[in-house]
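#help-structures
NK: newbie question, is this the right format to request a structure? protein is Alcohol dehydrogenase-like C-terminal domain-containing protein
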Amino acid sequence: EKLDFLRDSIEAGKIKSIIDKTYPLSQLADAHKHYEEGHPKGKIAITVV
């Protein structure tokens, strides 16, 4: 029931994820450094291609 509410809220645009920065997998160390230095203002995404 709670998951249904969460899904419906996301689909309705009531809940949004804020992405601070996106890094390719090859720059994982840079992403970790960005996080450890306390810079993120949202989520850090890692792209895997």
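mod (FA): yep, format's fine, and the tokens are attached above. Strands lie at 19-24, 43-47.
NK: thank you!
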